[in-house]
Amino acid sequence: MERADSLWRVASALHADPEYAFAEERAATLLTDELRRAGFDVRLGVAGMPTAFTARYGEGRPAVALLLEYDALPGLGHACGHNLIAAAGLGAALAARAVLEPGAGAVLAVGSPAEEGGGGKVLEVEAGVFDDVDAALMFHPGVHDWARAPLTAQEQYRVGFHGRAAHPTGNPTEGVDALAALVQLFNVLAAVGPRLPEASHVQGIVTHGGTATNIVPPYAEGLFGLRAATTGALDDLAGRLRSCAAGVARATGTTVSVERAGVRYEHFVDSAALSGRFAAHLGRAGIALTPPTPGVYLGSSDIGNVSARVPAIHPFVAIMDEDGSDHTPEFASAAASDRARRVLPAVTEALARTALDVLRDAGLRDEAWSGHRATTAGALAR
Fold first, then answer.
1. Element (H, E) at 204
2. pLDDT score, position 324
3. Nearest in space to 261 (alpha carbons), one of 340, 114, 154
4. How far apart are CA 297 and CA 265, in angstroms?
């Protein structure tokens, strides 16, 4: 009970003091102070991010990583429940460390900033944080009790059309309307949309449309978010966007640039062996996890990039009813509710037990790695 109360104080402190992408200074300090007091070797500024950290207890392999997210949503606070993710990852790391036998491997707590925008885990993967890890474990609060996460691949592209300025009355034939080209791209994408594969879609906004109504816009720009069920399908969709933009440019006499904006989130690859263990442990607390509803997708996350490298889990555990949604004020309230307080110790214990299973059970590790290689190879083939 004392440990559960302590974790709830951490979750509540984070909830009351939301910080945003790459600026989660107080959150990182709170979490690393707890880990340092427990004897973890803490390293700050991981992968060039001031608010990223790793905290290790033990040495060598096997090694298990528990992932902590702690960024909030501007204007909404912890409306994705990252305060609970951080507290659960912290608690699981502390619990596993408390019973870890000498020479049994290593527990790694990984603090990953900016999941909501910026992709801290993407940068950590590229920096090699997970190179010597056998499993990456986390949970996500939600409105479903699902054993695995149907998370799509996603990236953003900035599309700019270049035309020629003119007076729309004095010499309209001299103008090349870049905004008209951008609008036409929206129209083309709307026509293409119904023929895209399941889970593939493009959502765009106009970020620059001109400076005055009495000038034919010489430049117009849009930002387009692309999502697809797999990373391979996302590559196909990006190629479709480039082809559409090039066709519009030829038709309108403009020139176009298409550039990726920010990092790419890969689709999530679930480790069936590990998510099964987590579900079994959580079931003992009275929370039954089911497979996700077919055809329902729950957004994207940079955990996808981790899952492409090592066996990983990202189950959803409900803290509000299914008629709700994250990224809403109601979900922010739920992340500090009595229901969340009841869920937190259950998921923390299940994460800790799963982490210890990874460290103690060579057969489980072999099964997880075998399944991972088969699943990621299949995804690449598609």
1. strand 201-208
2. 92
3. 154
4. 15
**3-class state of residue 6 by DSSP:** helix
CA distances from 59 to 34, 97, 127 (A): 20, 12, 19
Residue with tokens 């790419």: 264
Instruction: Of 2, 48, 51, give the one whose Cα is nearest residue 22.
Output: 51
- Residue 58 tokens, joined: 């033990």
Average pLDDT over residues 264-292: 97
Summarised one tens digit per residue, pLDDT across range 30-45 is 999 999 999 999 999 9
Query: Is residue 156 within a helix (H) or strand (E), and if so which, with residue range?
Result: strand 153-162
Question: How far apart are alpha carbons 122 and 133 in whole angstroms?
Answer: 15
Alpha-helix residue ranges (DSSP H) falling in the chain: 2-16, 25-37, 82-99, 120-126, 178-192, 231-252, 272-283, 303-307, 329-334, 338-360, 362-381
| Terminal CA-CA length for the chain | 48
For 248, the 3-state DSSP assignment is: helix
CB contact set of 367 (below 8 Å; sequence gap of 6+): 273
Q: Can you give the C-alpha Rg of the chain in angstroms?
A: 23
